[in-house]
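Hi R.,

As promised on Friday, here is the backbone we talked about, encoded as structure tokens. Could you run it through your design pipeline when you get a chance and send me back a sequence?
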């Protein structure tokens, strides 16, 4: 009888405890929770102070040329970053097991769909596990149409220092103009505007 009273008096606490236990154990639940956080606007990447000029990791304006790196698709099509000069490149480093990566993916997919008709902008979704069958299956299951690649060469630390997800934007001159480590909402409109400005 006392146990029933205890449960009734702590019902909200017990439900919260179960909820957080599910989030901790389940990567999908954790990603869903994080996706809700993204929608609060607290994780919108700030490009308001950026101009289509090169910036470093700390958003300090420096002339940082993106180093050479090569990627490959599941079908064997290779892509070399050095060959993309003249185009704006949006690179996202991610994995399927990373909840923040999964959480931001709908916003990246939405951004891609809004800008994919612009031939001057290229999206590269880099599976850092290089398990392309699994990442392609993930994209298909989630109904995303993002282009998935794996690294052929080592990825230089100017682009990726180990934090998942990491997003980098490179201008038409091959200069890094934006780098963000951690999840973000890329469907806020600011990044779309920034990419279009860079592509002019």
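Update: got your reply. Pasting your designed sequence below so it's all in one thread:
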């Amino acid at each position: 009888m006392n146990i029933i009273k205890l449960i009734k008096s702590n019902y909200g606490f017990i439900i919260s405890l179960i909820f957080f236990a599910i989030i901790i154990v389940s990567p999908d639940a954790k990603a869903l929770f994080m996706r809700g956080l993204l929608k609060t606007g607290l994780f919108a990447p700030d490009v308001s102070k950026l101009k289509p000029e090169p910036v470093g990791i700390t958003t300090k304006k420096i002339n940082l040329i993106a180093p050479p790196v090569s990627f490959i698709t599941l079908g064997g099509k290779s892509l070399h970053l050095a060959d993309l000069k003249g185009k704006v490149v949006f690179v996202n480093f991610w994995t399927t097991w990373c909840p923040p990566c999964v959480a931001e993916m709908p916003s990246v997919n939405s951004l891609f769909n809004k800008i994919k008709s612009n031939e001057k902008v290229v999206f590269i979704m880099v599976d850092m596990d290089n398990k392309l069958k699994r990442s392609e299956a993930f994209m298909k299951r989630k109904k995303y149409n993002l282009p998935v690649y794996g690294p052929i060469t080592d990825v230089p630390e100017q682009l990726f220092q180990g934090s998942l997800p990491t997003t980098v934007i490179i201008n038409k001159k091959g200069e890094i103009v934006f780098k963000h480590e951690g999840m973000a909402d890329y469907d806020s409109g600011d990044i779309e505007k920034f990419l279009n400005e860079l592509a002019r």
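One thing I noticed while checking it: The chain has a mean pLDDT of 83.

Thanks again,
M.
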